[in-house]
Amino acid sequence: MDPSVREDYLESLCNLESERGSPAAIRDLAAFLDRDVPSVTKDILELAGTGDLLAGEDGMVTLTVKGRQEGMRVVRKHRILECFFTEMLGMEPDAASRDACVLEHDIPDEAVLKLKNLISGCPPGNCAPCARRGWNRALLPTLLDVDEGSEVIVRDLMQKGRLHRLADLGILPGEHIVLRRRLSNRSVVVEVKGADIALSAEIAGMVLVEKSP
C-alpha cells in the first residue's frame, strides 16, 4: 500500500473516532473517504496485517496504539498546515484544507514544527521554556485528542493573539482542566476551576495539553 494511502486511512479513522467517541464501521469509513465498501474492506485487511488496526467480524475498525499514533501525527500535520494557510496566507478554509491534505504526506516533521512555531510565536525549534521542561511541542496533543474524563494540564496555546478569551475563562498554560464530554459537532465540554465550559472544535484544537500525572 502506498504510504500516503495508509496515512489517509489512519488519519480518517482518528477523525471519525474523535467525532463519534467510538471506533468506526467500515461503511462509515468508506462514506468518509468517498470510496466503495469492497475496496475499503480490502485495504482495511491489509492494514490489519501490518498491525495498524483491528478489523472485527462485525465490520468495526479499531486502531492499535501504533496506528493511532501515526494517525494523530498526520492529523496534527493537517491542522498546522491548514492553520498556516488560513491565518498566515489568508486562504479560504476549504482551499486550505484541500491543500493541507496534499502536503501533509510529504512535508517533513521539522518543517511542520517551524510552521507551528511561526503561527504560535514560539522561536524556531523547541523554545527554551519547552526544552527546559522536556516537552516536544510538535508531539503535544490538543483537547481534541484526549479521552472523556481525562485530567490534563494546559501546556501552550496556538495562535495566542486570537485566543485571549481563553485567558478570561481561566484556560492558561499550567492550568489543570478535565475534559467532561464530547459533543456531536466535535465541540468539547471542559471543567475549569469547578465550572463547565463548552469550546468549539476549532478552539479546542488550539489548546495543547499533557495528561496530568
Layout of SSEs?
Elements: H1 3-20, E1 24-25, H2 26-33, H3 37-49, E2 53-55, E3 60-63, H4 65-88, H5 93-103, H6 109-120, H7 128-133, E4 151-157, H8 164-168, E5 176-182, E6 188-192, E7 195-199, H9 201-204, E8 207-211
Antiparallel strand pairs: 1-3, 2-3, 4-5, 4-8, 5-6, 6-7
Helix pairs in contact: 1-2, 1-4, 2-3, 4-5, 4-6
Structure description:
The protein is α+β, with helices and mostly antiparallel strands. The protein has 2 domains: 1-107, Winged helix-like DNA-binding domain superfamily/Winged helix DNA-binding domain (Arc Repressor Mutant, subunit A), CATH 1.10.10; 140-211, SH3 type barrels (Roll). The chain has 9 helices and 8 strands. The protein has helices spanning 3-20, 26-33, 37-49, 65-88, 93-103, 109-120, 128-133, 164-168, 201-204, and strands at residues 24-25, 53-55, 60-63, 151-157, 176-182, 188-192, 195-199, 207-211. The strands form 2 sheets. Strands 7-6-5-4-8 form a 5-stranded antiparallel β-sheet. The chain has a 3-stranded antiparallel β-sheet with strand order 1-3-2. The longest helix is centred in the middle third of the chain and has 24 residues, at 65-88. The radius of gyration is 18 Å and the shape is globular. It starts with a helix and ends with a strand. Mean pLDDT is 81; it is low at 123-137.
Bin the strand percentage. Answer: 15-25%
CATH topology of the largest domain: Arc Repressor Mutant, subunit A
CATH architecture of the largest domain: Orthogonal Bundle
**How far is the first residue's CA from the last residue's CA?**
39 Å
Could you give the count of β-strands? Answer: 8
* Structure class: alpha+beta
- Taken together, the total number of domains comes to 2
Radius of gyration: 18 Å
Number of helices: 9
Q: What is the CATH C-level name of the largest domain?
A: Mainly Alpha
Strand order of the largest sheet: 7-6-5-4-8
Order of helices and strands: HEHHEEHHHHEHEEEHE
Low-pLDDT ranges: 123-137
CATH superfamily membership of the largest domain, which one? Winged helix-like DNA-binding domain superfamily/Winged helix DNA-binding domain
Which term fits the overall shape? Answer: globular
Largest sheet: 5 strands, antiparallel
